[in-house]
Amino acid sequence: MNGDERGAARIAIVGLGTMGCGIAETALSHGCSLSVVDCTDDRTAEGILRIREQIARKVRADLAPADLLDAVDNIHHGSNITGACYGIDLVIEAVPEDWTIKGDVLAAISAAQPNIIATNTSSFPIERLAGRVSDPSSFLGVHFFNPAEWIPGVEVVPGPATRLDVIARVLDVLRTWHKVPVLVQSSPGFLANRLQLALFAECLRCVEEGLATPDEIDAVVSSTFGFRLPVFGPFTIADMAGLDVYASILDSLEQRFGGRFAAGPTLRALVTTGALGVKSGRGFRQYSQEVTQESLEKRDIAYERLLQALHYGN
């Protein structure tokens, strides 16, 4: 891919809604040459104005350098997809989650022959969308999360025909944008939304059963296990808590709520063999004394900073 080691590649964004504008701001803030287009000239102009306004808000709050506003003046805005995408290194399609619209836009982008086409879809199968481009080997999914300029994680979803060098190039660009790209398989909801919506579905059940209000659930989630999640993922948290403890809790939940809380064979096998997590030296991962000590120190420092940042106890 063209561009220097700082990731200053030629990027095009097609679709300037919430996600497209956030991705565009990210590209600009890392020195990329940017081209944008929406369905009409007016919508394109509105999108550029929105990018300017969201950058200006961050400049006023000292969250972005003032000269980033100058970069907005250098955005190329094509009058059509061909004009915006021809000869581009990486095109990121960010139009609404409508199968017909997305497919037609991808076909138009493909006709402009950019080097790589990425679709920012949160749910559509990549293998189906790949059928709308002329070269599926240079096509893949990149699922950003709202607000795209802030959230570090990006799911990178190759299709069946996506070349390894295409994957590597996209991962490299995302890393130069200080993102955390994670390769995931094409599946309904991919990974993050499958997990996030499972939690949300259970939250809805709690409300519908009269167990708690939405405000109470938000307070419990954000101040308990949600407080830990910026630092550790679910498997590390489970290892720290004790896998035998988790198995016991799941057994109680399964008795009351049924099979959706079944512990499953993987957890059962670990507990049966004495792999209980940090306290036994192994669980989903291995834990030497040094690794355990480092994890606890990381936890203590991070939690203290989180408490201060979120103003708990003040």
What is the topology?
Elements: E1 10-14, H1 18-29, E2 33-37, H2 41-60, H3 68-73, E3 76-77, H4 81-85, E4 90-93, H5 99-111, E5 116-119, H6 126-129, E6 139-143, E7 153-158, H7 164-176, E8 180-183, H8 192-208, H9 214-223, H10 225-228, H11 234-241, H12 243-257, H13 264-272, H14 289-310
Parallel strand pairs: 1-2, 1-4, 2-3, 4-5, 5-6, 7-8
Antiparallel strand pairs: 6-7
Helix pairs in contact: 1-2
Indicate the mean pLDDT: 93
Query: Which CATH class of the largest domain applies here?
Result: Alpha Beta
Distance between the termini: 49 Å
Give the total of beta strands: 8
- Report helical residue fraction: 40-55%
Radius of gyration: 23 Å
* Shape, principal axes of CA atoms: globular
Second CATH tier, the architecture of the largest domain: 3-Layer(aba) Sandwich
Low-confidence stretches: 1-7
Number of helices: 14
Largest beta sheet: what is the strand line-up?
A: 3-2-1-4-5-6-7-8
Report the β-strand fraction as a percent range.
Answer: 5-15%
Q: Output the structural class.
A: alpha/beta
The CATH superfamily label of the largest domain reads NAD(P)-binding Rossmann-like Domain
Main sheet summary: 8 strands, mixed
Can you write the helix and strand succession as a string? EHEHHEHEHEHEEHEHHHHHHH
Number of domains: 2
- As for the CATH topology of the largest domain, it is Rossmann fold
